[in-house]
Specification:
The complex is a heterodimer. Chain A is mainly alpha-helical. Chain A contains 15 helices and five strands. Chain A is globular. The radius of gyration of chain B is 19 Å and the shape is globular. In chain B, strand 2 and strand 3 form a beta hairpin. The chains are: A mainly alpha, B mainly alpha. At the A-B interface, helix 5, helix 11, helix 13 and helix 14 of A face helix 4, helix 9 and helix 11 of B.
Chain lengths: 361, 295
């Protein structure tokens, strides 16, 4: 019993370090910003940083806790972004902006969750790389269709078309909601750094509490050995779906935060394509698979590197790529890892990597 | 009817280019057990190399293609040695996947620096007099015939190489059981290097064909065909060469038909949708092996 109490104590302390870190960053940024030290560029990055950190939490649920590879998470973010932006645009000034944004975020999460569930039911039968390619395919399909669809509303209801916005709605009473490749314009810019941090904390609470719950242990047992898990009576499909759907919901939150930070929302590849999904995966793997705090740190560091390297102008993305490769080799190569452990250089990041996959045992 | 057949031929030719890329993907996956996300960007490097050598420096076409194949072959070996080999025993297949993504960023941004981000117009490697062919009632692009023939020849050579030569047999052995193969005296390292070399050389050929087909050449030219070829490889059962060939052809045909008959914009969604349906019906692809897991 005592051991168990100590274990609980340690996990909750670990969680509080994570929450504390997010809060500390928030306070520091607030102080810096009121002191006027932050450049405009950094100010503009604050909300995207929150979005990416939330996506790192979301994807970590699937990759780290459930142990399945998903390279289509930007698709869920895309659903959340468009649903929430549609809602806010329709409501307009009919509601106080905070209430409107809260409902928009919840709707974004809800719809992304529904998509996650619907996609999860057939897809989670597959394993490994096959699952990965199907998630990639779904992400691309969502992006592709939103990019091609025209949706309008008028007195007689909703209309959709894949070809053009002409004659879609009644010219007097109708409005075009999604204008194909031009997307949605005029979403109110409700996102702020404060709301981003609150959402990040909320996703962390969801993710960490799930991980420490009975359900979370069931999910991790599937990751560690699905045959053993099945043989002790764990309903694999159910728990896989719980993890996948929750992850999609969190991605939907991130999408809502993202869309309310943009004047024009378009489903371009640069925003919601597989490249983005892969970037989220990079955060998760570099931060330590299954380690939520590491994922958030990696998201922040990897987003800031290209900005900090701006003085290198054209070379910065090249340097970024090299940094990424070198960081991966240093933190994952067996020889360099042994070297670091021997010389006690292993920072938190690297130690966690070594333990990744063993955590649930 | 005539348009349907012309569309089928166009689809087949684009499909055979996908097939050449997919075979590279699938060979690397079968032997190194890694998804080489940088494969698509090797296509791009191959196209740029051919473009510079043929259009700018005025080399004859066969020599230019050969040189770009050699450049990509060396590049493939170099990437494998520098970026992938240190992570071969890293424990998580994700580590090397992310490194491959890093390599992909590196190649794209390197090309951006060297060649600039503006679109280059690739001159077709097909002689002008056979740009369009009239076969009976059908009008067919010369490049379509050339790509279909090239892919058939390449697959034939590969089949002979793998089944009839010692290095080919070593590749098969490594793909089945790397540890057992090394116990039999096969150098796993050399075999993996050889696989990367062959895959990258084929990527160069695919690049030249692809850019002769649609001449716009940018640093991200290879990305989408790379992803589609990866889809084709999975579609056919990843690790299987005939599977990659069939997967590539089917994908090309579906893409062309949905572009022509349904919608240009959502053709990608249709291609990926068909992939999902196939995987749900046959979870290891068309020719994939079902591996029974034992406790």
């Amino acid at each position: 019993m005592k051991e168990r109490a100590a274990l609980i104590d340690r996990t909750s302390r670990n969680d509080f370090v994570t929450y504390g870190m997010v809060l500390a960053v928030f306070v520091i940024v607030q102080i810096l910003s009121s002191a006027g030290v932050l450049t405009n560029q950094l100010q503009g990055l604050l909300v995207p940083l929150c979005v990416y950190a939330i996506m790192a939490v979301s994807l970590n649920l699937v990759v780290g806790i459930l142990g399945e590879l998903s390279i289509g998470h930007a698709g869920f973010m895309c659903v959340g972004a468009f649903v929430s932006a549609l809602f806010s645009n329709q409501v307009g000034d009919g509601m106080p902006s905070l209430l409107r944004f809260v409902i928009a975020i919840l709707l974004g999460g809800l719809f992304a969750g529904i998509f996650g569930f619907l996609i999860g039911v057939p897809v989670l039968r597959l394993n490994g790389d096959y699952l990965a390619i199907v998630t990639l395919a779904f992400g691309e399909i969502i992006k592709n269709i939103i990019n091609a669809i025209y949706i309008g509303i008028d007195g007689s209801g909703l209309h959709a078309s894949l070809t053009s916005a002409n004659k879609l709605v009644d010219p007097e009473s109708g409005v075009i909601l999604i204008n194909g490749p031009q997307g949605i314009t005029g979403t109110p810019r409700d996102s702020s750094f404060l709301i981003g941090i609150i959402l990040l904390l909320l996703s962390l609470v969801i993710a960490l509490n799930l991980t420490h719950s009975r359900d979370g242990r069931a999910i991790m047992s599937i990751r560690d050995n699905h045959i053993a898990a099945e043989s002790v009576g764990i309903n694999i499909t159910k728990y896989k779906l719980i993890a996948f759907t929750l992850s999609a919901v969190i991605a939907g939150f991130a999408g809502a935060l993202y869309s309310h930070n943009l004047a024009t929302l378009t489903a371009t590849s640069a925003r919601f394509g597989y490249n983005m999904s892969i970037m989220f995966l990079v955060f998760v793997v570099l931060g330590g698979i299954g380690n939520f705090r590491g994922g958030i740190i990696a998201a922040v560091v990897l987003t800031l590197i290209p900005e900090l390297l701006r003085f290198l102008s054209n070379y910065r993305m090249l340097i970024y790529a090299i940094v990424l490769i070198v960081m991966m080799i240093i933190s994952w190569n067996p020889a360099s890892r042994a070297f670091m452990e021997k010389h006690k250089l292993g920072s938190h990041l690297f130690k966690k990597n070594a333990k990744a996959g063993k955590e649930g045992k | 009817m005539v348009t349907l057949i012309e569309n089928l031929i166009n689809g087949l030719s684009m499909g055979s280019i996908y097939a050449i890329i997919a075979i590279g993907y699938t060979m690397v996956y079968g032997i190194a057990k890694m998804l080489n996300f940088a494969h698509g960007d090797i296509i791009m490097v191959g196209s740029y190399a051919a473009f510079i050598l043929i259009s700018t420096m005025g080399l004859p076409v066969p020599a230019g293609i050969l040189a770009s194949v050699v450049i990509c072959l060396c590049l493939g070996i170099l990437i494998e040695k520098i970026a992938y080999k240190p992570l071969r025993n890293a424990g998580s297949p994700l580590a090397v996947l992310i490194t491959a993504i890093g390599v992909s960023y590196f190649l794209q941004n390197g090309a951006m620096l060297v060649f600039g981000s503006n679109t280059k117009s690739f001159t077709s490697v097909i002689p002008a007099q056979i740009q369009t062919l009239q076969i009976g009632p059908f009008q067919v692009k010369g490049i379509a015939v050339v790509s279909i023939l090239t892919s058939l020849v390449l697959v034939g050579i590969l089949q002979v190489f793998i089944n009839r030569t010692r290095p080919g047999q070593a590749m098969l052995a490594c793909s089945q059981d790397r540890a057992a193969a090394s116990l039999m005296g096969i150098s796993v390292n050399n075999t993996i290097t050889l696989t990367f070399a062959i895959g990258s050389a084929m990527a160069a050929i695919a690049g030249v064909l692809m850019c002769s087909y649609s001449p716009a050449l940018t640093p991200t030219t290879g990305a989408m065909p790379g992803i589609k070829a990866f889809t084709a490889a999975v579609f056919g059962g990843i690790g299987s060469i005939p599977g990659a060939m069939v997967g590539g052809l089917v994908l090309g045909i579906i893409e062309q038909l949905s572009k022509y008959y349904i919608s240009q914009q959502v053709s990608d969604a249709i291609v990926f949708g068909v992939l999902i349906v196939i995987l749900l019906v046959k979870p290891t692809g068309l020719f994939g092996k079902v591996i029974q897991e034992k406790v």
